[in-house]
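HUMAN: Mind sharing a backbone?

ASSISTANT:
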Amino acid sequence: VNWYRQQGIACVGYDRQGFGRSEGKRAYARSYKVFVDEVARLVVACERRYPDLPVFLYGHSFGGQTLLRYLIKRKPHISGAIVTGPHLQLSFQPNPLIVALGKITRKLVPTFTQENQLETSKLSRRAEVVKAYNEDPYVTSKLTSQTGIDVLEIAEELDGWKGELPVPTLLMHGGEDGITSPSASQAFAERNPRELTWKLWPGLYHEIHLEPEREEVYTFTLAWLEERLGAVHRPPESV
């Protein structure tokens, strides 16, 4: 965030329901719609705070999944979107017993909580990034049945979706991501080429914006943004 601010880009973020500093049950929302509605409210907040500036949304991992869902379902009037490492498929096979238990308890006790099975060593090749994640008091290693199964079902829908995104979208993924599947992102890009720019980062893990090559990721992303900003601000041709 600080790097982009230094380039003159205003950044606004939020804590998703059930995560970070948000209130309520950890890792729980009553439905996936809650997460999509939060993105819609963020857009309104950005437009009110910066009424004369174009709005680009950025979503990573679970946030990348939610952003794609938002773009497809809500078709917002924004200038573009950046999606990195989205959960379309996992790079590992979740324990089928845990998934089955989640499906059963979602109907009976939706707040029933289990481990999210995330192997944090696969987040980044930088040990300090993994350490900071593991020690962050606002990070939870849990998932409730309601949210966990909702996320898996939305991933399955997106993994088969074919259509045209409503805004220019940059989709990026680390080639050695052990959390979410880079091949699923590439397949999504191949199914939906209009308005979508695909970028694979060979050798990078899940947190591409925190990897040793992060400056290259920042610079590439900024160049893509500036190209779209040029189109947004380009004066109309004289007739």
Notes: Confidence is low (pLDDT under 50) at residues 234-239. The two ends are 41 Å apart (CA to CA). The beta strands are 56-60, 80-84, 113-115, 142-144, 169-174, 196-201.
